[in-house]
């Protein structure tokens, strides 16, 4: 796989671009990575754990992408979560990657995805978490466990009304 990695001005984040995806790896040292929902988003439902931030490597991102793709193609995210369903072609989404390590030493990556074509203006997406109310299948996120190669906590935004 060919890729390019570009530093983001005035941050420790890195833009990773390939033929099949583009996304920003958020540094463990910068905001907002130090407080991504206090990292509770990285835990399975009903799981209690302390999470330590880490900056995912390019290899971690490639594994996380493979896990997410496998889950999307199988149309399911492990038994404790929702089915992916109705998510458009993964290549049409930009990504944000936030890393954490749980108490068992497992690497977890929260992948926040939003459509390149959504019409919403996310000019700071390389430095700030993209959050919206509603938005439907233009927005979704999932956790990839790099150590166990499973994904969970799929969440697709609802359609307002």
In brief:
The protein is mostly beta strands and 161 residues long.
Structure explained in plain terms:
By secondary structure, the protein is mostly beta strands. 10% of the residues lie in helices and 30% in strands. The radius of gyration is 15 Å and the shape is globular. The termini are far apart. 34% of the residues are buried.
SSE layout:
Layout: E1 3-7, E2 14-18, E3 22-25, E4 52-54, H1 58-73, E5 93-101, E6 107-115, E7 139-145, E8 150-156
Parallel strand pairs: 3-5
Antiparallel strand pairs: 1-2, 2-3, 4-5, 5-6, 6-7, 7-8
| Percent in strands | 25-35%
What portion of residues is helical?
Answer: under 10%
User: Can you tell me the residue ranges where pLDDT is under 50 for at least 5 consecutive residues?
Assistant: 79-83
Structural class: mainly beta
Note the main attributes of this structure:
single chain; 161 residues; mainly beta; 8-stranded mixed sheet; 1 helix
């Amino acid at each position: 796989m060919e890729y390019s990695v570009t530093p983001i001005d005035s941050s420790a984040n890195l833009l990773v671009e390939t033929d099949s995806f583009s996304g920003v790896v958020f540094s463990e040292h910068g905001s907002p990575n130090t407080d991504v929902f206090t990292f509770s988003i990285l835990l399975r439902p009903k799981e209690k754990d302390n999470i330590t931030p880490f900056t995912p490597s390019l290899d971690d991102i490639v594994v996380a992408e493979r896990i997410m793709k496998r889950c999307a193609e199988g149309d399911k995210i492990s038994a404790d979560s929702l089915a992916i369903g109705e998510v458009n072609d993964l290549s049409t989404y930009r990504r944000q990657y936030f890393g954490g390590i749980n108490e068992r030493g497992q690497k977890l990556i929260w992948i926040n995805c939003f459509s390149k074509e959504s019409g919403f203006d996310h000019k700071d997406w390389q430095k700030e978490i993209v959050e919206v109310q509603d938005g439907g299948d233009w927005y979704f996120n999932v956790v990839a466990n790099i150590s166990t190669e499973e994904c969970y906590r799929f969440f697709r935004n609802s359609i307002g009304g």
